[in-house]
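Researcher: Structure for this, please.
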Amino acid sequence: MKFEFNKDASRILDYLIYPRLYYFIDKDDKENEENFQSLIREDFMEYVEETMKAFIPYNDIIERYYQKDIYANIDFIQIVIKAFPPYEYKDEHLYINDLLKVNDEEFRKKFIKTLITIDDEDKNQDIDESLIDEAHAIKYINDLKIDASNKWNMLMMVQDPKKCLNEFVDLLKHIEPRFYDYYKTQADEVIIVGNKLSAKLAVNTSETLRKMSYNAVNYDFTGNDICHFYVSAIFPYTLRFIENGDCRIVWGLEMEYSFEKLHEMNEDKMIQRVKVFKALGDKTRYDTIRLIASGVSSIKDIANKLDVSSATISYHINEFLTSSIISLNRKKDKKSIYDVDYQKLEDVLTELRNDLKFPK
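Model: Predicted structure, token format:
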């Protein structure tokens, strides 16, 4: 299988999501901040903290166009990227300029269509054009399990998305000097990692990815001749599969290091047991893994059943992944699903019984 690394699209994607760094650290979640410290390099954490302070003057507009939860998958720029893909562009400013040239009605129609179909790729292909209107968009937004302020912001975007685009672009212009100052220090490493991993993954792709992730990711690439590969320096500790018909992977610059670090932590059986019990020590999280175990693998379906946001479920699933309780799997012709690692849990329970000297 051929992996095509695109350094320009990698930079463009990072440029568009750069303001999201404002939410990178949840100051109200001390436990997970400590978990971050164990996985994330100190120099990057320092940069994030400085950037969050630098973004304070723009917090109102950032909160308008990016959902607070870092795991959110529905906000202004995610919708725009899906409606107007930037992957073939060589420069972020050319992409932005082309967006600004789209007439207001066309932009609005595409924005609304993408919004109401963002969770369903098949629906995106077959949607009745008569459903692409403000009324259906408002209904969709009102059904979203997000807070009231985010709903209000989304409703304003639907009314005049082109006006919102201009305001969004103005935000990017204000903060882009800081983006470029940092990105130029990472650009060479992005290219090195992109080329190295593209070559590495091209051979025995699924097996190679499984080994690199220490069995955390089992992805069936069958049916794809080419996979488009992007490297993120702005979110270097994330791995994302873009489900849009084509094979596209966004790989964080430090993901290989992260997988190795997590594996080392999980090799310590005592630490692993504590992580597993912490991961299960929350009612919503426990209900989430129960649903996964019963065969419900869609984040949206789990969120609907538990009456919480998809972003909340994504957060909990991330905790399960880092604890090695579940793995990400994608079988041929299917969307990504999550499977419980029963053997891992069985081992943990056995070790618990030994630790506490359960009577035989």
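Researcher: Any notable elements?
Model: The longest helix spans residues 161-201. The mean pLDDT is 86.
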